[in-house]
Every structure is written in C-alpha cells, then in structure tokens.
Amino acid sequence: MRFLGINAIFHDPAAALVIDGEVVAAAEEERFSRRKHGKRPVPFSAWELPEQAAAWCLEQAGLRPEDLDGVAYSYDPELVLPGGEGQDARWEEMRTTYARRAPNFLATALPGLDSAQVRFVPHHIAHAASAGLAAPYRESAVLVCDGRGEAVSHLAGHYRDGELTVLASQALPHSLGLMYEDLTAHLGFLRSSDEYKVMALASYGEPRFLREMRELVHPTGDGGFRVEPIDWSVYAKALGKGEKWTSDHADLAASVQTRLEEVLLDLAKWLHERTGARYLTMAGGVALNCVANTRLFAEGPFEDVWVQPAAGDSGTALGGALHLAHASGDRVAPMPGADLGRGWTDEELGAWLDVAKVPYERPADLAAAVAAELAADRVVAWFQGRAEYGPRALGRRSLLANPGNPRNTERLNDVKGREQFRPIAPMVLAERASTIFGRGPMSSPYMLFVHDVKPEWRDRVPAVVHVDGTARIQTIERGRDPLLARLLEEFEARTGVPVVVNTSLNTAGRPMVDDPRDALECFGSAPVDVLVLGPYVVRRGAVFAG
C-alpha cells in the first residue's frame, strides 16, 4: 500500500513516501524553497504545507495523489486541550483550526487527493514510529523528547513487532525541549533553530549552576519530569544578536546541558526497568543532542542506542507514513539510510555544467583526484547521490577538508559564515574508527554521537577536535559508501591520516545545498576551491581565470 506522510504544524515541514512498507523517498521543504527550516514555528504559519516536497515524493515513485491509500498528518488537533498550559494563549486556537482544516488544504495542494484519505497521527506517535519502526530492531524501547506536541512533550514506550505500547508521557507545560529553546533565545540565538549552538557553547563552560538546575529540573520517578519556571537572567544576562558571550553564558549552557543529560539518563533507566529491552530508539528534537546521546550510550542500561537521523519534526512525516503502513497490515522494513532525497544522473549533472558554461573535467579516478586536492589543503564542495534527510551532512552534500591543518576549523567557519566556537566534524572508515576515537558507538553512520579523540591523535587531526577533546564522527561502511571509502583510503595514502573533515554544504542561514543549481551558486559565492558534482570536477582557478 502507498502512504504519504506530512509534517507541517510547527517547523521543518517535510514529506515522506512509504510503499508496501518500504521507505521510498523523504525530503524537507526547505531544500526546495531555500528557506531555512521551511518556515518559522509560529501558529499562523501552520497552514503552510510541504507542497514541493510532497509533489517530488509522488513524482519519484511515478504516483498521482489519487493513487495514495492514505496520507498521515503528524498532529491530531482533537488532542489539544483548549487553554492548556504550554500553549500560545494568543494564537493556539488558530493553529488548531488550521490543523483541523489540513485535509482540505492538502486536497488543494495535491489535486486529485481525496481529503477523506488524510488521517491525523498524534505528534509523538509519529515521532515514536520514526524511531521504533525505522530502526533495525523488531523490539526496542522508544524515547521521544521534544518541545511539544498537542498536549505533551515526551513519550516513553515499547515497540514489539511493530506494535507500540505507551508507558509514560509528560503533560505540558513541563518540557525539556522548550527549556532548551528558552535558553537558546536567552543566549541570543534563534529558537527552534540554533539549539545545537548552545550544545557547542556548553563545552567552553563549567556546570557552575548545576545545583540550581537540579532543583528546577527533576524527574518524578514515574517516567516523567518537572521543569519549573527559570529566570535565566539570574545566571547570565540576555544576549542580543551578535553580542559576545562570557564565561557566565558558557557556564549556564554547560549547567543546562549536564542537567538535560542527567534527566535523560533517569528516563532511560526507568524505561529499561519497565521493558527489559536490549535496544533504545530515540526521536524528537532533543534526540539531536549528540552529547546527551553519547552519555546515554556510555552510561545507560541499553546495549545500543539508535537515533532517527531526522529526529526533529521533519522526521514525523516519515513516522506518520510508517505508522499508517503498519496499521494497514504492511510489514514495515527498517529505513535503508538517510539518502532519501533528490538525486541526478551523471548525464543530467553534466548538462547542468554545460548550461553554466564552466570548465570541468571527468577524472578517471575521482577518489584519487579529490584526495590529492584535500591533501594539498584545498576545500572541496562534494555533491553525490541522493540528498540527506535530516540536518546532518552525510557525504552527499558536504564540504570536505584536511583535518591535519588546525587553521581549517576557522577557515571553514569563515567559509560558512558561522560562529568560531562551533566545531566541524570528521568522517572515518568504520573499521578504523576505534583506532582514533573512543567512548561513543563505533558504528555512527548518522553523526548523532560524540566520541573522545584519543590523545595520540589529537595533534594529527586538530581541525576536528572540539575544545573538550571530542569529535562528532560519521563512520563510513565500504559496502554502503564505496566512493567515500576509497576517498578516505586515497587520502590516508597521501597523508597518513584516515580522517577527512565533513561539514554541511551551505552557508549560514541557508539550507543545505540540494540540487545542482544550489551547488553552483554556493561554489560561486563562497571561497571553496573545488566543486565535485557527481563524477565531474570544477576548479575555482579554472572558472575565474583571467
């Protein structure tokens, strides 16, 4: 059967298509509209739909809207408690009204769709399905933490053979995600967008306010938690955009980050006691906190932790479609990877370059040619295969560089126009990861954990070592990514280092590059030395000669 999933209610609108239990396509609207996060998470934007992403998913499978057996909308307006705590008192009614009308909005956006085919899937059920049904396990505990859904901010449950048993949830206004969002705004960053900056800033501080945070944020012993109102200005003054942070701000970030980790560990231990499950699967925006994920892996009671690569709200499109597929009787298969977005043939990419009238070449050995550029300390824009689903660059739309040059951290942050306290990440062959990195899971294909960099390697890969001695790695499997595996081998042959810098191919405030035009525009506007578009290589010197 054929099910389309839609996320539209808060932020990161996205669409995903599941056919006969198999994930066929998934993409975020921002990659088409070129508007970061697709839209702002305000109630009066709830009518905006991922129209382009949905149309592309159908086109990818050769389907029309009338061919669908159902459409999952990852929010159920009937679960909203009017006037409930944690809502926007001025605008919540508008958000709920728009959600109720979503079937008609979708029928208009996708001509031929019967509005009766649209089914509301509760927000946290969609998150849970994106983890428990997409993971490579038939049985797992599932933990969802985010800002909010209809009336709760958290779900703890147990998946067995596709069936979810909900064991606990936390009613609003108590929310770990909203707490972290509030701190993000207090530190001068963009709420529901820049939370990862707070996580990076935390590494520069000490948890000096941890005692106070433990009094304000605490588990309740029944699978839930409480978050008391927090006056952040008691600990550090509010920052305006562009204002410089101080040790107080870093210490506050460190204190909140540490307390978040502690509460998540408590929730995980409670969940393990109730389920006895070997594996934990996770989704929700809080699951993008890779520092907390590593602590759950290292100190928690589960043998393994699997995090949905699109753990934020975009992933609820996939979860909603998987939920309907299982409910219809389809046997749902684990997701095949995160490369679920748009892709182009070599011929199509060559045609783009011809239209752009830029000089290019097609090396006989692409991996060797690019490794030589990286060894010569050039920055490479890397565009290969189908685009990633989720916020991480995973070797499809990436900026690559030499990790041996300590100046490359600052250099790449300058290329991207981002804050200098933010780290850049490495990719490494899976079989070499344990040689260089420790503590986190050695299979980390989605870059959702941090790992300690072994002391003897820190001076050899300084560009990817964060201030706390960690790195957020992506492990590369030869069978799944043969080209990237060969690139890493060729780079090591030239430098003795089996690691390459991998950060997202975009500039600050812009979504990740998605189509060939985006790649060419980014290459033309940012100080990148080489563009690799499929099998073709474009060099800046050749393009701008004379």
From TrEMBL:
Protein family according to the UniProt entry: Belongs to the NodU/CmcH family.
Pfam families membership: Carbam_trans_C, Carbam_trans_N
Transmembrane portions of the chain: none
Protein name: Carbamoyltransferase
PANTHER family hit by this protein: NODULATION PROTEIN U
CDD domains assigned to the protein according to its UniProt record, in alphabetical order: ASKHA_NBD_TobZ_N (cd24098)
Residue ranges of every copy of the Carbamoyltransferase C-terminal domain listed in the record: 371-540
GO molecular function ontology, one term from the record: transferase activity
Location of the Carbamoyltransferase domain: 3-71, 114-322
